[in-house]
Amino acid sequence: MFKIFIIEDDRQLVKLLQEHLHKFGFDTKSVVNFESIRSEFEQYSPHLVLLDVNLPKYDGYYWCRQIRNISTCPILFISARDGKMDHVMALENGGDDYITKPFDYEIVIAKINSQLRRAYGDYSGSPNERSVDVNGLKLDVERLLLSLRDNMVDLSHTEAKILDELMKKQECVVSRDRLLEKIWDDQAFVDDNTLNVYITRVRKKLASLQIEDAIETIRGQGYRLNPNWGDVE
Amino acid sequence: MKLFLREQFPLILFYIVQLFIITIVYWLDGYRHLTISLYAALLSSCLLISYLVFRYITNRSFYKRLENPLSSMDEFMNVDHSTPLAVSLHELLTSQFRHYKTDLQDYSRKLDGHIQFINQWVHQMKTPISVIHLMIQDKDESPYTEIGDELERLRKGLEMVLYISRLNTFDRDFYVETLSLEKIVRSVSSAQKRLFIRKHVFPMIEVPENLQVTSDEKWLSFVLTQLITNAIRYTIHENRKIYFRGFTRGIHSVLEIQDEGVGIPKSDLPRVFDPYFTGENGRHFQESTGMGLYLTKQICEKLGHRIEIESTINKGTIVRIIF
């Protein structure tokens, strides 16, 4: 299990980050005493560090240099400062990447994973891999595969994102707005019809796994996934 | 010379009166040699004239200085004066200048401090915003989506404060490079996806991929964000589009942003770039600060871009940035 050391002075932010990282199977520890970050780092010997720039006493750049003296583990800066100079400073002081506040969970996880992959090699099979399972229907987000029993079907990136949202909130309505927001970045042109087209495609993919009418359209609101394919035991 | 004569005029007048009185006194006493009197007057006048010439020569630089306006603050500091009056006036002015300069420095220090405070403060406020942002990220129901929208407004407000305070120190804070226009338009409009989706308005990006512009990425993104949020805000019907077109006009690259919104009344059009001007539309729509377009224009000017605006009521508005 990968260990992540969080150096951030906002308690609430640390709590939220930790909760989320635990969900993805990371072990985390946050700083107790901001005067002795170095010794706490040595004690914990993490695989990766999340580091804020504005800290009590010394700033993040200082601590980054301190950590670099004893370790080469990936260091990700998290800061509210979004100037070019701040990025440059972070990288020059030994940081590996930079995340600006406010950020999305997805970005943090993606950047952590990419740094870990680079530093410690491919980790396929590790507990950090994202997959969703609803009544035997399995979605592998990284490999873009959907499987039920022995049948398997390939998905496009956009289809996987839609299914991911729907499966995470099974039996709840997922609004059109949210789905549109999720698939926005993949598309060159997005409009209301784009989502209709993709929902139709997802339904077809489900049909090829003998799942019919699982995605219900709720007029004026969104879509709901009803796990009607029964338990597979 | 003129100033000198004007300055010495009372003396000359006084001298003539005095000469006249003395001559009269002698005349009345019975001394009636006209030629001798005239000779005395001539001698005396010669003395006066040589005095005046001497005065003028020694004070020439002083009078010249007084007659010509200063073109810069430091110009009068390096002039040599020889007469006591000129020297003491120079000293007075120098000390005044020094006081003035200290005051000025004081204020510019205070302004710097203020800008720094604002910067610090905005960055501090970003932490609670990120916390709220994380807390509601996985939620898709009321009231979380509304909280998200409000949070977005807060964030934009803070961003604007940051950019306004940075505008003063613009020359220290920009980095010009060659940028792909298409990439920037895409990333900025993507950052506003939430707003687009809420209003059911969608972007149509028709910018050639190879079109490049020379600009500062951060400032240009800020300008585009302002223009895009305006375009979305003033589009009231659903399923309309916002068109982004890129083309070249002569040697310049042009980015055109066209919306299908309410348009701007002709009477308001010349003033939309004024600070705090909200106009007709500002009264009908909330959250007009009147600062967006003002800042846009200021930043464009500093970056060396021109900006054009065209609008037809109920048809929409076209804004063009000419790089």
Q: Would you state the CATH class of the largest domain in chain A?
A: Alpha Beta
| Helix segment tally of chain B | 10
CATH architecture of the largest domain in chain A: 3-Layer(aba) Sandwich
The share of residues in helices of chain A is: 25-40%
- Total strands of chain A: the figure is 12
Q: Report the principal-axis shape of chain B.
A: elongated
Beta-strand proportion of chain B: 5-15%
Task: Based on Cα principal axes, name the global outline of chain A.
Answer: elongated
Radius of gyration of chain B (CA) equals 35 Å
Low-confidence stretches of chain A: none
Strand order of the largest sheet of chain A: 2-1-3-4-5
Q: How many β-strand stretches of chain B? A: 7
Major sheet description of chain A: 5 strands, parallel
As a whole number of angstroms, the C-alpha radius of gyration of chain A is 21 Å
**Assigned CATH superfamily of the largest domain in chain B:** Histidine kinase-like ATPase, C-terminal domain
Structural class of chain B: alpha+beta
* Count of discrete domains of chain A: 2
* Spatial strand order of the main sheet of chain B: 2-4-5-7-6
Modified residues (4-aspartylphosphate) (chain A): 52
GO molecular function, one term (chain A): phosphorelay response regulator activity
Domain OmpR/PhoB-type (chain A): 129-227
Pfam family, one (chain A): Trans_reg_C
